């Protein structure tokens, strides 16, 4: 079977993911729901191994045999890039391919508020994008970095696992580094990046204590750092960062975070009335009131500040959902 047939189907049907599993018909995820690929037949192990030979490098196939699972990307000249996870399961091999559009969408195309332009022009600090898996964080970060790439003169370094959107340098110098290929780990890459003269740093995920410490250090030392976390709100994001540290360090970390955190954007994807999905976002801008709440460990009060912070670009998730409903973009019954 030619993998390009399945990938073309996924792209043409605006699917976010394509799933291939031994013994099952190929599936695509469209608007958050899985559905079978029309007129496709069940895949057996031999067909799946043939597909893997089409999309994986020989070294990836060797790694798969030893590690039993791998993450990588596949680039199609006509269809774009795809993030790949291959794994073994009870029925044999399975493959999950995430569709990465060829064109990086703009803020206007995504329907983002003007506060994003201000965030991109911040001179330094930490900006965290939060949300569950599949909430569009990668696309949001890509649009942010592409706006900076097109409007600023600086050096962007991304640390990703794996590299997803590929950037063409415009006004910025752009270096993309993949964990496991170009560097050993997020921690190792962050230690090195401060010697690489960056202006903007993207950390694919703040997974552990070392990564969080180094990201905070980079934000403190004059860089604008973007990072992601699998949290659902600004308050939870702040608590998650603080909680990875030992009790004796937490007061110091809250002080560092209060001075270096610039914004937290928490998002989920909701169905549009006319098809597709749109990001609903909670936006917290770190003003003096929120800085004090972080220092004093009163993060439970942050939500009320966000509720009343519309003039400076803040909004709760509920406020944004109501706005989307009023615009007729989203059904109130979701």
Name given to the CATH homologous superfamily of the largest domain: P-loop containing nucleotide triphosphate hydrolases
Question: Radius of gyration, Cα only, in angstroms?
Answer: 21 Å
CATH fold naming of the largest domain = Rossmann fold
Write down the overall geometry. Answer: globular
What is the straight-line distance between the termini?
39 Å
Which segments are poorly predicted (pLDDT under 50) over 5 or more consecutive residues? Answer: none
Helix content: 25-40%
CATH class of the largest domain: Alpha Beta
CATH-derived architecture of the largest domain: 3-Layer(aba) Sandwich
As laid out across the biggest beta sheet, the strand order is 9-8-10-11-7-12-13
Outline the structure in words.
It is a single chain. Helix 7 packs parallel to helix 8 and helix 10 packs antiparallel against helix 11. The chain is globular. The strands form 2 sheets. It has a 7-stranded mixed β-sheet, with helices on both faces. A 6-stranded antiparallel β-sheet has the order 3-2-1-6-5-4. With 334 residues, it is an alpha/beta fold.
Which tags fit this structure?
seven-stranded mixed sheet, alpha/beta, Beta-Lactamase, 334 residues, single chain, Rossmann fold
Summarize the structure.
36% of the residues lie in helices and 26% in strands. The protein has 334 residues and is α/β, with parallel strands linked by helices.
Architecture blueprint of SSEs:
Layout lengths: L2 H10 L4 E5 L5 E4 L2 E4 L8 H11 L2 H10 L1 E8 L3 E10 L2 E9 L6 H4 L4 H6 L4 E6 L6 H15 L3 E6 L12 E6 L7 H8 L6 E4 L5 H12 L3 E6 L4 H10 L6 H11 E11 L5 E9 L2 H8 L6 H6 L9 H10 L8
Parallel strand pairs: 7-11, 7-12, 8-9, 8-10, 10-11
Antiparallel strand pairs: 1-2, 1-6, 2-3, 4-5, 5-6, 12-13
Helix pairs in contact: 7-8, 10-11
């Amino acid at each position: 079977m030619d993998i390009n047939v399945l990938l073309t189907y996924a792209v043409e049907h605006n699917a976010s993911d394509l799933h291939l599993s031994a013994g099952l018909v190929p599936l695509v995820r469209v608007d958050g729901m899985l559905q079978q690929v029309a007129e496709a037949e069940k895949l057996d192990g031999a067909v799946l191994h043939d597909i893997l030979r089409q999309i994986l490098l020989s070294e990836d196939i060797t790694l798969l045999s030893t590690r039993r699972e791998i993450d990588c990307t596949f680039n199609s000249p006509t269809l774009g890039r795809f993030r790949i996870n291959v794994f073994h399961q009870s029925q044999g091999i399975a493959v999950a391919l995430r569709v990465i559009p060829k064109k990086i969408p703009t803020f206007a195309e995504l329907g983002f508020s003007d506060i994003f332009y201000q965030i991109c022009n911040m001179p330094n600090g930490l900006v965290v994008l939060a949300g569950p898996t599949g909430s569009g964080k990668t696309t949001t970060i890509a649009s942010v970095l592409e706006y900076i790439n097109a409007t600023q003169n600086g050096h962007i370094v991304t640390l990703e696992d794996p590299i997803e959107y590929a950037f063409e340098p415009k006004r910025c110098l752009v270096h993309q580094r993949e964990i496991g290929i170009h560097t050993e780990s997020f921690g190792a890459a962050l230690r090195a990046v401060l010697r690489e003269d960056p202006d903007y740093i993207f950390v694919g995920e703040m997974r552990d204590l070392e990564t969080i410490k180094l990201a905070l250090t980079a934000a403190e030392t004059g860089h604008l750092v973007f990072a992601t976390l699998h949290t659902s709100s600004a308050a939870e994001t702040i608590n998650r960062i603080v909680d990875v540290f030992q009790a004796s360090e937490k007061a110091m970390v809250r002080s560092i975070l209060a001075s270096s955190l610039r914004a937290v954007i928490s998002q989920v994807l909701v169905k549009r009335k006319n098809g597709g999905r749109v990001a609903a976002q909670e936006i917290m801008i770190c003003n003096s009131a929120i800085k004090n709440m972080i220092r004093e460990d009163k993060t439970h009060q942050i939500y009320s500040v966000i509720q009343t912070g519309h003039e400076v670009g803040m909004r709760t998730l509920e406020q944004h959902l109501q706005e989307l409903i009023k615009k007729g973009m989203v059904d109130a019954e979701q």
